Amino acid sequence: MKNFALPLALAACLLVPSAVFARSGETIELTDAQIEELVLRSYQYVAMFNVNNKFALDTANPMCTQGYNRVYANTDLADHTLQAIARPNNDTLYVIAMVDVTEEPIVMEMPVFDSKYVSLMVTGYDHYVNIPMSTGDGDFGKPSTILLYSERTPGYEGEPVEGVDKVFEVSGDFISAALRVMPHAAEPDRLRANLAAMRKVDLEPLSEFLRKKAGEAQSLPGGSPQGIGRNLDLKEDLARFPAFGSDFEIFEDRFLEVMQFVVNHTTFDSEDELDVALLKVLKPLGVEPGREFDPDAVADIDGAALRAVAERFATQQLANMGDPDFVATILTKLFQPKGEISVEVQAFQSISGPIGQPASQAIYQPVLTEDGKPMNAMHDYEIVMAPDAMPPARAFWSATLYDLDNGFFIPNDRKKYSVGENAGFQRDEDGGIRIVIAAEKPEGVPEENWLPIERGDIDLDVNMRLYSPDLEKFKNWTPPKAKKL
């Protein structure tokens, strides 16, 4: 896999020497290789600490749940105001459940969905992706419940519960449990049914669920956000966590504080190579599971140097998206469960666009250019697919436009960021399609197939998503390339 990561020596040489331990704010001078190792092994945790807390607690995020153990049913497709995450999705609707299992297990209740694509994705600070339920596995055809708990959840060890269809142990205490729903926007009755179903998704503690089953309590009122947060005072909830922000800001200003919080609320396996390696590089700096963060008892490390390496690393990973060999190698390796993904792939996906789905559910195919250079808003482009070269997706596909550096939608008055079954598209008479990225709609191009831009020196990125891909056909599929007009 070429050009994947910054040049790194053998892992054994990169670890902070075991004899060097932090003592009361001791300054520790790390080598470049040691800083690179810290960035590589911690990036997934820094990124997901930010992502999960922004969805739970950041009121500037339009999809914020306003606290943990609450649900937000986003019944409108996302627009350019969504900047809590790089390369957000504009072709499905979301139900975001932010879950806190520190006090007791949480039960997630879901109704029937009339959709050919629904999936439940569960992700903690470690950024391992689990899909405990999906339409591809026959789920969501009837009302269902799933109980979520972690190794640290008090008073519960995974035993069956009457009325609960599935019990799922999560790897962290603070997780996102996100439903992706294909809304069938072109079918009004089906769309209304799916929107109504999304609003019925709810969370409740196991104790409340059991009281309801016994007839001792009534259902909680609905609404969006909905649910029964651990506390309903957002200020109190915010006070429980180190401050979130940008990844680079955390690397520079409060890396050890955030990592101490993360390791205290994540399950680690003494037999897992990546878990062992992470804890080994953190321990000499004064961070290990079970400790309280004490700024006077951890190492004093050079935050500016750590940030500089993180920025350099992120820049190189984003550049990899323009390498066709790299893309072909990595696409089916992204967003996997624990034990099925390398630290290099974890770091890449945490930079390029966190919390996606594994290839069994979706493939995220970058659209490269014919000349190998990044697309730029100083020019117009077309993406053409012949009838026999359409994406091999069993459910549906879409092509979404972002700015390359940040991974955000390109702002425009039409709020048109993607082409696909839900955002709209028109095939040619022969069954193919021509998508145009342009400052002005070209004559003869259907409105649905035009992705608008404003002239400027902004590098662009198009990501094609294939939902429920046919993996056998995908092996022989040639992705389209963008041609400069």
Keywords:
5-stranded antiparallel beta sheet; 485 residues; Immunoglobulin-like; disordered N terminus; alpha+beta
Q: How does this model look, in words?
A:
The protein is an alpha+beta fold and 485 residues long. Among the domains are: 59-238, Immunoglobulin-like; 361-484, Jelly Rolls (Sandwich). The protein is 25% helix and 21% strand. It has a six-stranded antiparallel sheet with strand order 5-4-8-2-1-10, with helices on both faces. Strands 11, 12, 14, 15 and 18 form a five-stranded antiparallel sheet that branches. It has a four-stranded mixed sheet with strand order 7-6-3-9. Helix 2 packs across helix 9, helix 2 (32-57) packs across helix 11 and helix 6 runs antiparallel to helix 9. It is globular, with a radius of gyration of 23 Å. The relative contact order is 0.16. Residues 1-23, 217-224 and 227-231 have low confidence and may be disordered.
Query: In order across it, which strands form the biggest sheet?
Result: 5-4-8-2-1-10
**Percent of residues in beta strands:** 15-25%
Distance between the termini: 32 Å
Helical region count? 12
Number of strands: 19
CATH class call of the domain at 59-238 = Mainly Beta
Bin the helical content. Answer: 25-40%
**Helix/strand/pairing category:** alpha+beta
Mean pLDDT: 89
- Based on CA atoms alone, the radius of gyration comes out at 23 Å
Q: Looking at CATH, which topology of the domain at 59-238 would you report? A: Immunoglobulin-like
Kindly report the name of the CATH homologous superfamily of the domain at 59-238: Domain of unknown function DUF1254
What kind of assembly state do the chains in view correspond to?
single chain
Shape: globular
Largest sheet at a glance? Answer: 6 strands, antiparallel
**Which residues sit in consecutive blocks of at least 5 with pLDDT less than 50?**
1-23, 217-224, 227-231
